[in-house]
Design goal:
Length: 330
């Protein structure tokens, strides 16, 4: 018992399904101490509404309880399905507390429930997403977003950008950094000794020899060629509409898509509700659900915890893959 890792679980947007998912997660017995970070009254009221137990002890840093609660009070009354800008600072504080705890070794990983980017920005707090927030919080210059659904892994060269800004954001240097982080993390965290990368082109037909855009010919291919010369196992750039065929996927460990909606629709079609978002390149372990706040069903009691369970299981696998010296266990 005293060697169980401690995993922080943030409650996400209070008006969304995050609080319900936390309560449902608490019903399963994991080989870990789960520390839920959120508003105590909201989580207990959610458990009462669901008629489920939520016997989390107050987190004090030394408790051996399997379920613990680090109370971060919400700033305003929460109504399921109704966003409130007054609670934006509360949402960010839960992320701060989880990330700080991981950085100091109090938690071995953090698992995040969905937040609502729009209401945070509407509150005057610039926020692009968990990935970018945690990169800034940990002073990490470059991170890579990866989503996994079973054997399918999709990483992103760019993340939360308007489509009009994607081409200018793709450079040889950026792609070099992205591939190196992806290759290293697949080896260190996922135990893949010789990762095989499949890289999508940016344009239709990977540019059609320059007739449909020159980014594939002038930027992506030279970057991949240089990496192949250094021993990386890389195929591409290939047309994105053929990258996700069964034959191509069987030959590779990960697909690197150039932008958010190039790769993630395929992954979510395959594994929505059971996929996991992982931030690679951070000095801490962070996994997340593959869906949003689901305001339309918040408070209904019908939220599916499948992705949160998958994110928690993967977080524990990634913790277990670390060397004992790297794990700050009790």
């Amino acid at each position: 018992m005293h060697r169980l890792p401690r995993i922080a679980v943030t409650a996400g947007e209070p008006a969304g399904v995050g609080p319900e998912l936390c309560v449902r997660l608490a019903q399963q017995d994991y080989p870990a101490r789960l520390v839920f970070i959120g508003d105590k009254e909201l989580l207990r009221a959610t458990a009462d509404r669901l008629e489920l137990p939520f016997p989390a002890e107050t987190y004090d840093g030394g408790s051996m309880a399997r379920l613990q609660l680090l109370n971060v009070p919400a700033r305003a009354q929460t109504v399921p399905g109704q966003l409130n800008t007054a609670n934006a600072a509360y949402v960010l504080e839960t992320l701060e507390r989880a990330a700080d705890g991981c950085f100091r070794g109090q938690f071995q990983a953090m698992v995040t429930n969905p937040v609502h980017k729009g209401v945070i920005n509407d509150a005057g707090l610039p926020f692009t997403g968990h990935t970018e927030f945690l990169a800034q919080k940990t002073n990490t210059r470059k991170v890579v977003m990866l989503l996994a659904a079973g054997d399918l892994r999709v990483a992103l060269a760019t993340t939360h950008l308007p489509l009009s800004r994607v081409p200018e954001s793709i450079s040889r240097d950026m792609l070099d950094q992205t591939v190196r982080i992806l290759h290293r993390e697949l080896r260190v965290r996922f135990g893949i000794d010789q990762p095989r990368l499949l890289v999508c082109g940016l344009n239709p037909h990977a540019g059609e020899g320059g007739h449909l855009g020159r980014e594939d010919m002038d930027v992506i291919e030279p970057a991949m060629h240089a990496l192949r010369e250094q021993g990386f196992d890389i195929t591409g750039p290939v047309p994105a509409d053929t990258a996700f065929t069964p034959t191509m996927l069987a030959r590779h460990d990960v697909v690197l898509a150039m932008y958010h909606d190039q790769g993630l629709p395929v992954l979510k079609h395959v594994g929505f509700g059971n996929a996991v978002n992982v931030t690679l390149g951070l000095p801490i372990i962070r996994t997340s659900v593959d869906h949003g706040t689901a305001l339309d069903i918040a408070g209904s009691g019908s939220a599916d915890p499948g992705s949160l369970h998958a994110a928690t299981r993967l977080a524990l696998e990634l913790v277990a893959s670390q060397s004992p010296a790297a794990m700050a266990l009790d």
